[in-house]
Amino acid sequence: MTGAAVPLARHRGGAVGHLLRSLRPIAGLLRPYRWWVLAAIVVHVLIHAATIAAAVVGAVIVGKAISGATAAQLTPLIWLIAALVAPLGVLGFLDMYVTHAMSFRILHDLRLVLYRRFHDLAPAYLLQRRSGDVARASIADVELLEVFTSHIAPPVVAAFIIPVLALAGLGIIHPLLALVVLPFTIAVASVPSWLLDRARRQGQQLRDQHGQLGASVVDTVQGTREVLTSSAERQAISQIERQHDAILIASKAHGRRVGVEQAATDALVALAIVASFVTAVLLELHGAISRTELPVVLILTAGAFAPLLTLSAAIQEVGQVAAAGDRIQALLNARPAVTDTGRELSSAATSSRVTFSNVTFTYQAAAAPALSQVTFDIAPGGTVALVGHSGAGKTTCISLLLRFWDPVEGSIQVGGHDVRQYAEQGLRALISVVPQDVHLFHASVRENIRIAKPDATDADIERAAADAGVMHFLPDLPDGWDTLVGERGASLSGGQRQRIGIARAFLRPAPILVLDEAISNLDVEAEHHLHQALRRVPIETTTILIAHRPSTMRLADRLIVLDHGRIAETGTYDHLIGRDSTLSRVIGQRDALS
Asked: Phi/psi zone of residue 442: left (φ > 0), alpha (ψ -120 to 50 degrees), beta?
């Protein structure tokens, strides 16, 4: 081997090795379905083998007929070709059924696994990623596995087996024919590896760019109101246009590479057929083979290359499929912020006392603590308001209470039990939360409230809605209870969305009720109705308010004022507001901003 050829071989070997390594995540994902994959490959190979065998018998019939064979001599061959063609219909059905039934089973199971994984990783993992990227992992990336199981694995295996069988057939006719065709089959099979590194990079690039475009479109659609009110249409469209341009440039580069590979493949196949036929004619002239075998030589030569022609197209998809497998595997291997090692504790035997003991928490190792040595206790039935400027640590307290994260130091107890002793689902069943930004689904008003308690009756829903003030705007909606609220509740005002969120909390009564700035978007009348509803909350229910309005703070038995992650002061509203306190400065800052 020449000095120039050695680096080239190493380069190709390295590219192929990288490709095989990149497919390992996919192999891991498909391991439970290995028998399905094997069945799909076997059926696909049998289809190719039966097709070539039938074509060979047909060529033999043509050759013998030209040579003057009688009908009686051809009859057995006609029955043989019928026996080979007849199963093709069944094999074709099995090919479609096995590959697609297997693929859809894999997609179904994997999507369920991913959805459960999102639940395990939320919210820490999801907060660091765009919703479009997450959607791509659960939809587009999973769909690409169907490409691998249906359109890559079977053709690639067939591309290795069928040429060997065809070359064996040529060798039986005459060894020289196999020797002439063999270098061409090796060359055609190697064509995809010539630019394999580039193909992999282009596949990854196209996949990433399509993912970024999808995420940008989702962001733009969800933020349409903000885009319009900010007169930012030009910027939003320009960003999407830039991403489209990048995809266009990458697609053209991808097309040029594919064109080079296709041209090289077509040229090699044409040369192989010419060389094979010329060799067969020369052998026939010298009496080494019979004239009736000439059509068979052409059929076997073409059959050797038929699966190789699909190999290049299959390899072109491998880069994108491997990248999708990497992303799915990374998601499955991601470590959740908390580990659900707790046990189910009976909510009936659990009181609603909430205790923070020297709690310190940091979102990132190098960042300043979001909470530092926070200690407080809320007795059953108590109402406490967490107050402080933005970033003081109020929402972090609620996130730790719900065990979205675990404290770095200290402990949090509910009903005298550390929250880590609860199964996560059991812990969160003890707490009803109304967030500041209520998420509504594209469903009716009734179904959006029913989400909190799927088995609730219409009477239960209407009672919770009345307590939350939903009934005040319901008659104004076009279809009343059956009005579709739009994606994320786009057809409703902020105050209306919050009232529906509050109705959810009232529908599923829990020992602990958390209102995370849930009154911020309510008008004075709606806030008054909510205050009345809160006074009807069962006396044993512990209520935690994250409050900015003085009117809401007055509902609390006690205020816990946070400042840069530490408790600055505690006391009643009247006690703290009448002196130079952190509370006074917080309220003063808010009044100045408003």
From this structure: beta
- Closest by CA position to 572, among listed 399, 330, 382: 382
Residue that wins the pLDDT comparison between 463 and 314? 463
3-state secondary structure of 530: helix
Sign of CA dihedral 414, 416, 420, 426: negative
- In the numeric block, the tokens 């009247």 are attached to 574
The CATH H-level (homologous superfamily) assignment of domain 25-333 is: ABC transporter type 1, transmembrane domain (1.20.1560.10)
542: phi then psi, degrees, rounded to nearest 5: -85, 130
Model confidence at 420, in pLDDT bands (50, 70, 90)?
confident
Helix 5-22 to helix 294-333 angle (10° resolution) is 60
Angle, nearest 10°, between helix axes 140-147 and 131-138? 30
Instruction: Compute the distance between CA of residue 315 and CA of residue 319 in angstroms, rounded to an integer.
Output: 8
What are 531's two structure tokens?
Answer: 């205050």
Structural contact between residues 464 and 474, judged by C-beta atoms closer than 8 angstroms: no
Q: What angle do CA 289, 292, 295 make, to 5 degrees?
A: 100
Residue 315 and residue 321: Cα distance in Å, rounded?
10
The first and second tokens of residue 11, run together, are 């380069």
What sign does the CA torsion over 338, 344, 350, 352 have?
A: positive
Residues 324, 207 contacting (CB under 8 angstroms): yes
What is the reported pTM? 0.64
Q: What is the pLDDT of residue 199?
A: 61
Q: At what angle do helices 494-507 and 524-535 cross, to 10 degrees?
A: 10
pLDDT at 3 over 50: no
Q: What are phi and psi of 453, to 5 degrees?
A: -155, 90
Q: Residue 555 pLDDT more than 60?
A: yes
Angle at the Cα of 442 from the Cα atoms of 438 and 444, rounded to 5 degrees: 90
CA dist., res. 181 & res. 188, Å (int): 11
The Cα 373–Cα 386 span in angstroms is 16
Task: Give CA separation, 221 vs 127, 153, 218, 238, 424, in Å.
Answer: 19, 38, 5, 15, 33
Domain ranges of the chain: 25-333, 349-593
> How many angstroms separate the first and last alpha carbons of the chain?
79
Strongest mean pLDDT among 298-312, 353-367, 518-532: 353-367
Q: How many other CB atoms sit within 10 Å of the CB of residue 225?
A: 9
Tell me the per-residue pLDDT of 122-167, one tens digit each, with 9 for 90 and over: 666 666 665 556 666 667 677 777 777 777 778 888 888 888 888 8
Between the alpha carbon of residue 433 and those of residues 351, 395, 401, 429, the distances in Å are 17, 11, 11, 10
- Beta bridge partner(s), residue 359: 374
Residue 234 has pLDDT above 80, yes or no: no
Average pLDDT, the chain: 77
Q: Concatenate the DSSP letters of all residues of 567-583 into one string.
A: EEEEE-HHHHHTSS-HH
Fold of 349-593: Rossmann fold (3.40.50)
Indicate if 349-593 has the same CATH topology as 25-333: no
